[in-house]
Amino acid sequence: MNGPHLQFDPERHTLTEAERRHLAECRSCQLLFGSAEPLGGASRPNAAVVNTILKDLKPVKPLPSVPRLALIFGTVLIAVLAIFTYLTGAKGFFMLSPMAQMLMFSIIGVGATVFSFSVAQQMIPGSLRRVPLLPVAIALCVAFAAVVGLLFWDVTSWAPPQMIHSCLWIGLGAAVVTAAIGSLIVRRGAWTDWFSSIVSIGALSGVSALLVLTVHCPILKASHIFLWHGGSIVIVMLAAWIVARRYR
């Protein structure tokens, strides 16, 4: 039994003279050894207390490093993308020009990397946080809006209303699945900042929604992307902020 007071070996049934002197003066050790008053020459601890403490002791499994945790969250994004691509198709990816693919997936890739590291860092107390979350999120949103506005502002496309509206629900579905899986992983860590942790999971889920919709949706019209793709991200981030405020 190791702590800030006595170091007692449960295999040894007697206390040394130094331990008895400490026990006579230390209120915490008196309570632990089964008495509210100094025990003076007492030599046997409370076995029930010792056995209770020893019974609950379990080996500690260290958390993976931050890069490995970030890789795990990246794998979650890929898994969610694979599931929703199987369910909804990948017409959007093949409709994009090579330039559009490079620009859009570069922005999404940067967001996935930054937010994966952000969630991983929240799991490990004392981890260095070199990249501020909010400025990066704003910069990525501005960059994505600029790319969409420049490439698709004058595109005209026809699509049935059910396809237009379905993008919102597909994006929300991908975000919910990502948030659920990510939360299960994050539970292994130690949350020292609930607000930042929940917002980081929300940001990662928003990236997942945007990734799935970019691969799925063949409607390459700026107004559609801003309203329905962007709408799903706004809803996800707003929900994460509301939940995070509750635990702040």
Question: Could you please describe the fold and organization of this structure?
Answer:
With 248 residues, this protein is mainly alpha-helical. It folds into 2 domains: 1-58, no CATH class; 66-247, no CATH class. The chain is 70% helix and 0% strand. The longest helix is centred in the middle third of the chain and has 26 residues, at 98-123. The chain is elongated, with a radius of gyration of 27 Å. 29% of the residues are buried. Residues 1-5 and 35-43 have low confidence and may be disordered.
Give a short summary of the structure:
By secondary structure, the protein is an all-alpha fold. It has helices at residues 17-25, 27-32, 47-56, 66-88, 91-95, 98-123, 133-152, 161-186, 194-216, 222-247.
Low-confidence stretches: 1-5, 35-43
The mean pLDDT is 81
Shape verdict: elongated
Total count of helical runs of at least 4 residues: 10
> What is the rounded Rg?
27 Å
Strand content: under 5%
Number of domains: 2
Oligomer: single chain
How are the elements arranged and paired?
Blueprint: H1 17-25, H2 27-32, H3 47-56, H4 66-88, H5 91-95, H6 98-123, H7 133-152, H8 161-186, H9 194-216, H10 222-247
Keywords:
disordered N terminus, 70% helix, 0% strand, mainly alpha, 248 residues
